Amino acid sequence: DNIVTAQALYEGLWMSCAMQSTGQIQCKVYDSLLKLESSLQATRALMVAAILLGLVAIFVAVTGMKCMKCMEDDQVKKMRMAVFGGVMFIIAGLAALVATSWYGNRVARAFYDPFTPVNTRFEFGSALFIGWAAASLALLGGAFLCCSCPRRETSYPPTRGYPKNAPSTGKDYV
């Protein structure tokens, strides 16, 4: 007697979901990798690469932190590890930013396409905003780690401080 209709459709990188009027959500994983559009496959690959590179960057950057006991005998190498971790964070952030922006562009183009049926027009979801925020934080964190770059040694002669005068006894002045 009751008609169950889909109230909302969700589509992501890994599955498509439909929320019904009863409140239940049914999700379906995409059937085949080969049936997917090439842009969706590339977006998936970029996101997986960003996640894996971000995890490796965490471990590299942690070894370069000043509070870690690893490599504490050579501070220059330790700082270089932190900078290398920062560069890896920047690359991971760029990969995530490209992936989320590419998918967002795909959604926007399909939304404004007059040939797309009205019931299959998607809007930006929370995953896109989370992806953009995560990419921004990875870029910002990588930039902060890169700022801890060790300064290069210069060939200038060492600076000489002013000679320290002996404290005056007060008898030197007339």
Automatic annotation (TrEMBL):
Protein location: Cell junction, Tight junction; Cell membrane
Entry's transmembrane regions: 42-62, 82-104, 124-147
S-adenosyl-L-methionine is among the record's keywords: no
Keywords, in A-Z order: Cell junction, Cell membrane, Membrane, Tight junction, Transmembrane, Transmembrane helix
Main location: other
Gene Ontology CC terms, in alphabetical order: bicellular tight junction; plasma membrane
Highest taxon listed in the record's lineage: Eukaryota
Gene Ontology MF term list: structural molecule activity
Pfam families: PMP22_Claudin (PF00822)
Bilayer disposition of the protein: Multi-pass membrane protein
Gene3D superfamilies (UniProt xref): 1.20.140.150
Protein family: Belongs to the claudin family.
Role played: Claudins function as major constituents of the tight junction complexes that regulate the permeability of epithelia.
Name by which UniProt lists this protein: Claudin
Organism in which the protein naturally occurs: Steatornis caripensis (Oilbird)
